[in-house]
Amino acid sequence: MSYKDKKVITIGMVSELTGLTERKIRYYEERKLLFPERSKGGTRKYSFLDVERLVDIANKMEDGMQTFEIRRMEQKAIRKQEVREKMLRGQLNAAFNIRK
Fold it and tell me: Which residues form the HTH merR-type domain (predicted)?
């Protein structure tokens, strides 16, 4: 796991880093665009990748996109990546004559 994946940043620090309000950050979580972890005490914890993601979301929103459009784009990208990985596994299996 990269340091960028570790969920260690509080919402206050994320707000400072991104310029977004805590309320806006929580809204993006409600809209299922962001998935922070929770500490035992319930504090949201974010990663550096989450911070980068929030900046990307904010830029898309500023360009006029809606949250559902952003979520749909991400889901489409995830499906494309899954198809690519499946095709690559198939090619490797065929190349090395691996049968399941």
Answer: 8-76
Express each pLDDT in 21-73 by its tens digit. Answer: 999 999 999 999 999 999 999 999 999 999 999 999 999 999 999 999 999 99
What pLDDT shows up at residue 1?
79
- The residues, ordered by sequence, that sit 6+ positions from 32 with a Cβ below 8 Å of its Cβ are 71
- Please state the length of the chain: 100
Boundaries of every domain in the chain: 1-65, 66-100
Q: How far is CA 87 from CA 32, 83, 93, 94, 99, in A?
A: 29, 6, 10, 10, 15
pTM of the model: 0.77
- Range 1-65 has CATH code 1.10.1660.10: yes
